[in-house]
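User: Hi! I'm working on a homework problem where we have to compare a predicted structure to a textbook description. Could you give me the structure for the chain below?
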Amino acid sequence: MTRSVVILGTQWGDEGKGKIVDLLAHDVDAVVRYQGGHNAGHTLVINGEKTVLHVIPSGVLTPRARCLIGNGVVVSPRALIKEIEGLEASGTDVRSRLGISPACPVILGCHEALDHAREKARGQQKIGTTGRGIGPAYEDKVSRHGLRLADLADPARLADKLGGVIEYHNFLLKHFYKTETVDGAAIADEAARLGEELKPMLSDVTAELHELRAGGRRILYEGAQGSLLDIDHGTYPFVTSSNTTVGGVMTGAGVGPNAVDYVLGITKAYTTRVGSGPFPTELDDAAGRLMAKRGVEFGATTGRPRRCGWLDAVAMRRMVRINGITGLCITKLDVLDTFDEVKICVDYDGVDSFPLGAEEWNRVSPVYESLPGWEGTTQGLTDAAKLPSGARKYLDRIETLIEAPVHMLSTGPERDANVIFTDPFAAPDLTA
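Assistant: Happy to help. Predicted structure tokens:
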């Protein structure tokens, strides 16, 4: 029996993961975030009401799931408390259901200031970060002088460690980036106050997960961003600061590979990207503008317009292999309903092997295969038998090119707008 499912994006993020997590979370005992921070944005539409989540697992809007934030997530206490209060204001119980690892690295105001200063200094070469301090917080973690939530919950430890961190960041801000420094005393006061508020929610997430697994409980691991933004396997350096691929589950939650029974890759029927960086199939024409308009392509966290282009089967096949994808969920197929012709990138010209960095990615020229569009609509469909034949042929071609089966379709933003060919929790157990 499948008990643990990982949901992650196979493109540059914004694939619609939050809705699918919310859909599957109704039958699970725990939903887990394992990497990233509040630079992620998962949009849920339930009974016509839109909710955007950033760091709290999307299962919070279901009635029973325990929501866990693993040690691989960098946490801004201020942003987390704000998100909790926003959900509570709409009547959602959060604090009794939320467990946060004390080992989560902390994002402070100095990290945000450093993030902004770096992007400004890069000029035309900016990465396109959200400016939320994610990268600098991960850097502090790796350099082993960063604070963790456990430190905020202990006033003596906080006082002992925080001064050196503030001093280091202010030195960089003042002498290297030639910009204003941060108020260390204000950051210390806020950290102590928010640490005390978060303390009742701290939990040994790894221990909880092993107990749930041993008890035969169902667990859903919720990825943020997308695989092509992975710090190791993405379009470096135009990537995020964490492992968005499946390996992030093991390091960011503290479970072994045998604890994952199924990996669901979320994929748009076309491709989008927010921010800077290579994008071989990007369209700067009427087709791209139509995708953006029909798909309402704006970032859930930043509101920035998304760049749009045809589906890139070459990049996706690579991500399918890296993640060990069991099945795909294709989202926003309805955006292509009005196209007379649809295209898929099936090969790259200009490179001899799969590109591993931005320099190689920028030499890529996409080779397209064209397919006819389809008459009829896929929007809101729940019955596979009503899928237009042209749309079915498009999905069949994707399966062949990407080397993974399509197990689900998302046909609209509402929770029940889906076609499910194979329920991930009913699929065969890969570890059996």
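For your comparison, note the following. The chain has a mean pLDDT of 92. The CA atoms of residues 209 and 255 lie 8 Å apart. Good luck with the assignment!
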